[in-house]
Write a structure and sequence with these properties.
homodimer, about 210 residues, mainly alpha, Arc Repressor Mutant, subunit A, Tetracycline Repressor, domain 2, 2 domains, 9 helices, about 75% helix, about 0% strand, elongated, DNA-binding
Chain lengths: ~210, ~210
DNA sequence: TCCTTTATAGCACGGTCATGCTATTTTTAT
DNA sequence: ATAAAAATAGCATGACCGTGCTATAAAGGA
C-alpha cells in the first residue's frame, strides 16, 4: 500500500480517537488499536508521537483549507461572474463550511479545536494553528472587500474590524457547538450567520 | 489555617499550572510542587485528582460569575437608573469583563477554555461547563431585552438570535486571544465589541 | 501532661506511556 | 529462486501518574 495512503489512514484513526476520547487519550497505543494495527506498525510510518500529531494536524488543516479555497475560487473567479443573489448564497455556503453543521464537520471542528488548544503549550504545533487562523482572517477580509466593491457593505464599515468580528463569530459558533454539544443546532447557527451578514449590508439593499 | 482557604490556594496553583503548561500536565504532583506542598498534603484536602479538578473548575466558574453579576446588578438596578450614556458604557464594561483584556483575565479565559474543552469528554465537568454557557446566554438576553425596552435596539432584531450572536462573538474573541496569543490585542477586541454593539442600535441613535 | 484530632509528608503498587531495539512476515526486484 | 527492502509485530526500559496506605509533626482540649 502507498505509504502516504497508510499515513492518512492512521491520521483518520487519530481524528476518531480525538473526537471520541480527547487529545490526552490519543496515545500511540490507542491510535494503533483504533486503526487496527500494532503499535510497531504505526511507528514504522511515524517516528514518534510528536510526528504523528503534527502530521494529523497538518492533514486536518489541509482538509479545511481545501474546502474553503474551493468555495473562495468559485466566488472570486472573474471569468464566471455571479449574480448578486448567487454571490450572497455562495458567501453563506462558504462561511457555513466552517461551521459544524453536520456530524462530519462537527468532528472536524472538535478535532481542530483540540489541536489548536494543544498548540498553546506545544511549540511544534503552534505554527499550524496560527496558519489557519491567519488564512481565515485573510479570507474574510477578501470577502468583505469584494462586498464593498459591489456596494453590498455599509459604507461606514471598517473592514479590518469587520473581518475580526466575522472571524470571531465563526470561531465562537464553532466553539460552542464543539464544547456544548446539543445546545446549538444547525438551524440556529445558520440563522445567526445570516443575521450577521444581513446586518453588514446597507439597509437599502436588504 | 482555614481548610477552605487552603483549598483555594491549591486551586490557584492549579490555575497557574494549567495556564503555563496545559491541563494535561496538571497532575497532583505538579500542582503540589507549584503550591509548595507535598503531594500528600494536597491529598489531605482533596480526595483525588478528579475532586481537585472539579473544585478548581467550580472556583473559576464562581469567580467569573461573580464579576458578571456585579456588573449586571449595577446595570439592572431599578433604584439607581442610569442615563443612556451610562447604560451604554456599563454594558461595554460588563461584556468586556468576559474578554481577556489584561493578563489576569487572559489567564482566566485560558483556564476556563481548558476546562470547557476537557468537559467535552469528562462527564463530571460537563455540568459546570454548561452552567456558565447558559448563564452567559441568559445575561446577554436580558441585556438585549433591556436595550429593546429603551428603544436602543433595531426594531427588526430577533432577540434570541442576537443573544446567540453576541455570545458567539464574545466566545470567539476569547478563543482567539487564548489560542493565538499576541495576534489579538486589547484595543482590537474592544473595537470589535464596540462595533458590534453600535451595529445593534438603530441608525437614528448612533 | 496526655490524648485526640488535624496537618504534612512520603512510600509502594499497578497502570499507561513513548521509545529504543529486535524479530518475523510480506513484498519487490533481480 | 533469491536477495534486498519494506511492513508488521512486539519486547524491555524508564518515566510519570493516581491512589491506598503509613509515618511523622503540629495543634488543641481534657
Amino acid at each position: 500500500m502507498d505509504p502516504e495512503e497508510r499515513r492518512r489512514l492512521v491520521a483518520e484513526a487519530v481524528f476518531r480517537v480525538v473526537c471520541r476520547h480527547g487529545l490526552e487519550q490519543t496515545s500511540l497505543r490507542n491510535v494503533a488499536a483504533e486503526a487496527g494495527l500494532a503499535i510497531g506498525s504505526v511507528r514504522h510510518y511515524f517516528a514518534g508521537h510528536t510526528e504523528l500529531m503534527v502530521f494529523a494536524m497538518r492533514e486536518m488543516s489541509a482538509r479545511l483549507i481545501a474546502r474553503l479555497t474551493a468555495h473562495a475560487d468559485r466566488l472570486l473567479d472573474p471569468s464566471a461572474p455571479l449574480t448578486p443573489d448567487e454571490q450572497r448564497e455562495t458567501v453563506v455556503r462558504m462561511l457555513a463550511e466552517m461551521l459544524p453543521l453536520d456530524e462530519e464537520r462537527r468532528t472536524e471542528v472538535v478535532v481542530w479545536l483540540s489541536f489548536a488548544a494543544a498548540a498553546r503549550t506545544r511549540p511544534e504545533l503552534r505554527a499550524h494553528a496560527d496558519e489557519l487562523y491567519d488564512g481565515l482572517l485573510v479570507l474574510t477580509t477578501r470577502i468583505l472587500e469584494g462586498a464593498r466593491r459591489a456596494g453590498r457593505l455599509r459604507p461606514d464599515s471598517d473592514i479590518a474590524v469587520e473581518a475580526r468580528r466575522l472571524c470571531a463569530l465563526l470561531d465562537g459558533l464553532s466553539l460552542e457547538s464543539a464544547f456544548h454539544p446539543g445546545r446549538l443546532d444547525a438551524d440556529t447557527m445558520l440563522a445567526v450567520l445570516r443575521a450577521h451578514l444581513a446586518a453588514l449590508t446597507p439597509a437599502a439593499a436588504s
